[in-house]
């Protein structure tokens, strides 16, 4: 798209996946403390489908049309005033305090919306350098999963000798959470469909099938009991967690937020940071953290990607190539 416009997958009305289409949108310009990134890839997740369907994130006042997507990777092509002087906390977190963000730097980062587009403008504090070993599609889809999993596992605090139950363990957040808990020395039981059991074993989890009798199957795998649970599925999965975990203060739901206070369980509480993203990007680059992209879509196929997300099945993450 030439001139002062860019292409984006956006929606002018709330609704199903069909409301998403490629539109011409004004090209954003970097202001003080900001960078503009030419996006190469963007992650896709249930947060995006909820925004498209009509949910408004707290504090959002942007009018329609809206561009979904809150994670991305690409190349900086414009730097606002003050950025060179401040550097990037994310870069410092990678152990490279002498590196400054500048035009041509390859980065990954996060935003509230606007990642399904050719360009995005964000604060320089919300990006970090992309390790060259990480493919674009992985970099673009990394942020939400690793940051959410890190926050959740930090709150649940599983330790060596404990057993953690992870629901929807083959999904993007679940698969990272499994690996983080295993690194802490915990035993992880992960719920998933049978076709994803080999994948979970490869991540270090003990897989168990969804469905009727789940609580009994988990008890058989954990004769010493379940110490904590991370719920990425909601509904019946949360009910099983309540049945199996004695201390409700060690149950965290990422789905049934409205029930948390009533039940006395947790939801994730924390903010995304470039420093945290940099740490996990480095682990992925070294091969110490596995992160699966199960399928990529083109900008013109964003609606199809949303349809796949809303099936609520599949291992790993989807990415949009732009």
Structural account:
This protein is α/β, with parallel strands linked by helices. The protein has two domains: 5-130 and 292-321, Medium-chain alcohol dehydrogenases, catalytic domain (Quinone Oxidoreductase, Chain A, domain 1), CATH 3.90.180; 147-263, Rossmann fold, CATH 3.40.50. 31% of the residues lie in helices and 24% in strands. It is built from eleven helices and 14 strands. The protein has helices at residues 46-53, 83-86, 89-93, 136-156, 172-183, 197-203, 214-221, 236-244, 260-263, 274-286, 302-309, and strands spanning 5-10, 21-26, 34-44, 71-79, 106-110, 119-123, 127-129, 163-166, 187-192, 206-209, 228-231, 251-253, 293-298, 317-321. The strands form three sheets. Strands 3, 4, 5, 6, 7, 13 and 14 form a seven-stranded mixed beta sheet that branches. It has a five-stranded parallel beta sheet with strand order 10-9-8-11-12, with helices on both faces. Helix 11 links the parallel strand 13 (293-298) and strand 14. Helix 4 packs across helix 5 and helix 4 crosses helix 10 (274-286). The longest helix has 21 residues, at 136-156. The protein is globular. The two termini are 12 Å apart.
